[in-house]
Input
Amino acid sequence: MKIISFGNAKGGSGKTTSAALLCCGLAARGYRVTLLDCDPLFPLYDWAVGAVSGHATAFRVQDANRLASQIKAMKSQVDYVIVDLSGATNIMNALSFALSDLVLVPMQGSAMDARGALHTIELIKSVADNRRAAINTSLVLTRVSPMVVTNAVRYATQIVAKRSVPFLPIPVLERSAFRDMFSHMTNLIEVEDGAISNLSKARRDIGHLTDAIASCMAN
Output
């Protein structure tokens, strides 16, 4: 079983969208996936209730004890656990980082998201120092225009560059399909063709993202 956590101290950075896309990609390949939603509003869980197939399950998690027990219970039952963390810096986030095989820190191309990412990276580093073992971590650019890289994106990446945390080579592009996924509470891999605009491009992006994350875990 592999554990992948999505965290950023700033809300709205793309954690939930990224987690949902990865779930779609892994489930489409036949992997058994469990989603653990630690956000107090539980947006990932609400999406999953209507969207995920028999390959995926979802749970709401409200405290660190629940997180630990849920992960332990899933150990022999699933291939991947995906944890969508809240923006708060708390013991649940630290525990998730310590247990994870990979921590992904999504961030939009803005100074505010970059500062949230830096705060999260510092917490990951603190957890790693305390357990005396490195934590596999990558940044993920989200809501990136497929046509042009803006100055804001360049500036945001420069802010976090000094922390020497690599970026996932595949960003999460700005796609209307990714917004519609939550509006319609649907899985973009399983939804009927024509139901959502630019579905073929969205599916291609999901495949690329899933490949990049798998490669990151293998390194």
